[in-house]
Amino acid sequence: MFPNSSNLGRPPFPPKHQQHSTFFNKLPLNIPPALLSHQQIIDAQFNFQNAAALLSGNLATLPAVTPQPLTYGNVSPVHTSTAPTSFRGRKRLSEQNVPYDVKRQRFHSPHRETTVVNQTVPLPEERRYSFPGSIPSQLFHAHYLPDLTGCVPPLRDASFSDPIETTLPVAKDKLSQQVLELFQACQQQTCDLNRKELCRTELQREIQRIFPQSRLFLVGSSLNGFGTRSSDGDLCLVVKEEPVNQKTEARHILSLVQKLFSTKLSSYIERPQLIRAKVPIVKFRDKVSCVEFDLNVNNVVGIRNTFLLRTYAYIENRVRPLVLVVKKWASFHDINDASRGTLSSYSLVLMVLHYLQTLPEPILPSLQKNYPLHLVHQAPCTIPPYLSKNGSSLGDLLIGFFKYYATEFDWSHQMISVREAKAIPRPDGIEWRNKFICVEEPFDGTNTARAVHEKQKFDIIKDEFMKSWQILRDKKDLNCVLPLRTTIQKR
């Protein structure tokens, strides 16, 4: 199911310089994020053997990119140079020193839900898919996929998933009903994802003028099943199969991307900023979709954990509502911002999954232990729903989540591990020493909660868990810890 999964769950992790070295041997990057239209599929007359051969290729086999003038939204065509610029050496271009406002602002579209675009945008029957290994339904429905009723939604359909692809849990008590109400109002809609996908498609076309063999992937909450209507878009630019030095190469590549955004694409890209973090990113806002994006280079762990989290999201129907309400709760209480020393959304998701794995009667298994498959595109065909004997309601699970981290989890000595499906002793490495919260990244073994490096912030986080547990235990009313009407209005 997952790249390199034959090694998953087998510590120790490889040295840092080797962590991603074999990833592209198995990730089917030769299938373009913007795939074939229906007519192109008919013309090519692909069969299953052809498609399977595509999945086993490599990045070097990609066809040359033919530059075309770009018209995005209602703006004039953007003309850029057709001469590709090769990346040579380490010399960096001058970078725009734009101060980074660490608290993201949310932008809401003044336009209707449907964005009107020109003919360069795929029609509904020509939907393009941004995920590695994703296959247009017209191609594989007739040749490959068995009946997936009741299974994890196919990753190939991740960009345009059916809103009724899974059955929501039954809510018989007030608190559970409130959790479901919040989830249904705030979960990412198809139209939200379409806007992100449109931007990704057009940006890939422009970036490929500079890096012809590159791919731009939409990753993170937009595709892992845990996105909300206000979720930002995360993009991963893959420029080559080999690892990229994040301090030098990645920054140089991103400086070229930033320059492209701030000059030739300035008519619809706003405020492109190069952020020199451990994994550097270019932050920008798309004026057409009114979505904010973070773009990184070759951060392939983000691609892998998107697949992993999506599978967890859909194998049990209580997972997504519970994760969404926890993310909204953390945001409301100002403990969901890694740039301000609190928890990232990714860490929060892992914390929820870990809690569901460690119940006396688990609601989730360890996928990495139970399904050691190495072909990513096989996941939806081979992972059935997890049948848990735990019949706890969403309300009870939410109260139990807060109680677990308020009173049961040993922050000083334990590490949260979704890979192992249990709390394990903290390692003694520098990554974990003197850290207040330890959440293991399931693939590369780093600490996803390393941003919590101040005791004051850690104490605030613990205090919020304790107060929310006590209030919900006594009141059984979500409004007491998260005002529903205001949260739904913001979405």
Describe the 3D structure:
The protein is globular, with a radius of gyration of 22 Å. A hairpin with a 5-residue loop joins β3 (269-275) and β4. Residues 1-70, 74-164 and 374-378 have low confidence and may be disordered. The protein is an alpha+beta fold and 491 residues long. The two termini are 33 Å apart. It is built from 15 helices and seven strands. 33% of the residues lie in helices and 8% in strands. The strands form two sheets. It has a five-stranded mixed beta sheet, with helices on both faces.
Q: What's the shape? A: globular
Q: What composes the largest sheet? A: 5 strands, mixed
Unreliable stretches? 1-70, 74-164, 374-378
Number of strands: 7
Q: Can you write the helix and strand succession as a string?
A: HHHHHHEEHEEEHHHHHHEEHH
Q: Measured on Cα atoms, how large is the radius of gyration?
A: 22 Å
Strand coverage percent: 5-15%
Mean pLDDT value: 74
Structural class: alpha+beta
Question: What is this structure, in a nutshell?
Answer:
The chain has about 500 residues and is an alpha+beta fold. It has helices at about 25, 40-45, 50-55, 135-140, 175-185, 190-205, 250-260, 300-315, 320-330, 345-355, 365-370, 380, 395-410, 455-475, 485-490; strands spanning about 215-220, 235-240, 270-275, 280-285, 290-295, 415, 420-425.
Question: Main traits of this protein?
Answer:
33% helix, 5-stranded mixed beta sheet, disordered N terminus, two-stranded antiparallel ribbon, alpha+beta, globular, 7 strands, 491 residues
